Each structure stands twice: as C-alpha cells, then as structure tokens.
Amino acid sequence: MRAAYDALDEATRRRIAGFSAHHSLYHSQSRIGHMVQTGAGYGYHTKGAPLRPLVKVHPVTGRPALFIGRHAYGIPGLDEAESEKLLSDLIDFACRPPRTYAHRWQPGDVVIWDNRCVLHRARPYDYREVRVMRHTRVAGDPATELAPTRRDERASAYEPSSSNR
Description:
single chain, alpha+beta, four-stranded antiparallel sheet, 5 helices, 12% strand, globular
C-alpha cells in the first residue's frame, strides 16, 4: 500500500489527504451476501465501525500508505455512491501489478506481513489439504491505532471502546 500511495498522481493524493472511512467486517461480508450474528466469530463485535484515515503514516518508517480495503466504506463528507466509487477506484489501482503478490504455498511456509502497509485477502484453496493458520496482533500506539467508532448498524449492539483490547 506504500507503493500504491507512491504511484498516485499528486491531485489524487491531495484529494484523499484529509479523508477517512469507516471499517467493518459486517459491511464487507454483507456485500457478498453473508450476514453474521454479533459475537459469532472474530471481527463480529459490538465496538462499532472505526473511522480510519485513507492515508496512514507508518509510525516506524514514516512512510505514507493507503489504508483501505474491502472493509472500508462511508467516507464522511461524500455521499454513498461517491464514497463507494472512490474506494473502489483506489482498491482497483492499488491491486494492479507490480503491486500484487500471490503466494503459492508449500509445506513449511511461513508468511509474515505488516497490516499497516499491506492489503491482504484470503483466496480459495483445496479444502482437502490441511491448513494451519496462526496470527499475532500488536495493539500499537493508542494515539495512532485507536480510532473513534460509530454504531455499526449491522451489529446487534454497540459498546464504544476506549482501548485496543
């Protein structure tokens, strides 16, 4: 997502500089017809939909990166259609070669990425094959990682959070 940001024209960088979008697993899953009950699994919580900037500066490297993905929606200040188009255009642009990588798994492989600057997506796989996945998350600096939330209308409840836990 750093390379995608670097490749944007200056007019687009200026346009998106102050924009943020809400992020919700409920939103992305509902777009593909999958409705999940609150509490049924990871990401289906009551903490609301965080509002995150479209461009985040990495706290260690200082490099800007697009912070978008299929969970992003509802840019404040834009109507729904305009917001959806901008996010769709940015994702389309970001996911063009040479900024893509598809891993071909082999036994013993380990893949590690920094969620602050990589957009990742699960892909179909052979369900007859054993697949073991583990992940670790670092809460991060509350000043840059804890985002204000609003009620996620697809969740059955809303409990604003003031921590990353």
